[in-house]
Structure formats: structure tokens, C-alpha cells
Amino acid sequence: MGRPTKANSLSRQDVILAAIACIDAEGSPALNVSRVARKLGIKPPAIYKHIPAGNAGLQRAVALVLWQQYMDYCHQRLDDIEDNRDRLLTGWRITRQFAQQHPHRYQVMTTFVLQPDDAAAAAIIAETQQFLAEALQMYGLSQAKLIDAMRMINATLNGYIAIEQRGNLTLDRSTDDSFEIILDALLVAVEYIRDV
């Protein structure tokens, strides 16, 4: 009996880890079936055995794993913090730290649109929303205002991180200092949303 071929001995996790290695080395354009197959030393069709739907399926599988890595990263650093204000501020700082440590991973996960009708994506959406909802409960926001606050927070943090990653924050001021001011302003903005 012959040895199994490399393509037959791979698992779904092997393919995803290879894709993440490609992203880390070359950025988000490396997230495609052909590039990952080259990394694994196999033919592209062998990937479909583990991840159907070509590049779209690969992007979904990788984005979901990256989101879970990010959530695990956050939980490891937040679980011992009980004060909601401190949890918010620390969570926002942690998000930026994750993006700084893994810029290409962050870009992939935040550009992939999580669909609520996709069970795996819905679980991530629920987990991120639950964190924000619990931390924001001290403001006593209605459901509509909670959604407004979540959207504002996500847009602000993701926008700042994206601009920073592109190197567009070129004025003569520490980006760390500006980020801290933005965090303070977000807290004030949440109060505005509550009171408007």
C-alpha cells in the first residue's frame, strides 16, 4: 500500500494555517487558492476538498478563524477587568494592539463582511455585540441608541486603525496620544447618544 499524497494528508486547519502564513508574509492579496496551494506544495484543486467555494470559501474560513483569534486575544486580556469603563477603554486599546501586531490579519478580518445568516459569522457578531452591550450597560441606552453607539465605536476605531496602518497620520503628534484623546471622546460621545 502506497503512502498517502501530501494533498490527501492535509486537513482543513492545515490549509487555513498556510493561508494565514501567506497573509502574514505577503499581505491580504496572498489570500487566494493558488498562492496557498503553492505554499502547501499541492495543486489548487486539492484545497477544494477541505474548503469549497474557491477564493470566497477560503476568505470566509480564514476570516472566521482570525476573528476567533482576535476574540481569544481580547478575552485573555479583559477577563479580569470588572469595571465597565476600564473594560471599554482596555478593549479599544487591545483592538489597536492586535492590529499593530497583526496588521494583515486585521485587514482581512475587518474587510470580510460577517453575515448574520451565516451561523459561524452570527456567533462572532453576537460575541462582539455582547461585549459592547455589557460594557455600555452603565449608560442605560435604549436598543436603538445602543446600536448607534456600537456603530460609532466600530467606525471610529476601525477608521483610525486603517488610516494609521496606511501611514496617513503624518502630522507632528504622537499617534498614541491622539488615540487616547479619541477614546476619551468616544466616552463623551456615548453620553451624547444617551442624552440626545
Summed up:
With 196 residues, the chain is mostly helical. It is 74% helix and 0% strand.
Provide a descriptive summary of the structure in words.
With 196 residues, this protein is mainly alpha-helical. Helices cover 74% and strands 0% of the residues. The chain has ten helices and no strands. It has helices at 6-9, 12-26, 33-40, 45-48, 54-78, 84-101, 103-111, 119-136, 143-165, 175-195. The protein is globular, with a radius of gyration of 20 Å. The mean pLDDT is 93.
Helical proportion? over 70%
Q: What's the pLDDT, averaged over the residues?
A: 93
Computed structural class:
mainly alpha
Number of helices: 10
Elements, N to C (H/E): HHHHHHHHHH
Protein traits:
mainly alpha; globular; 10 helices; single chain; 196 residues
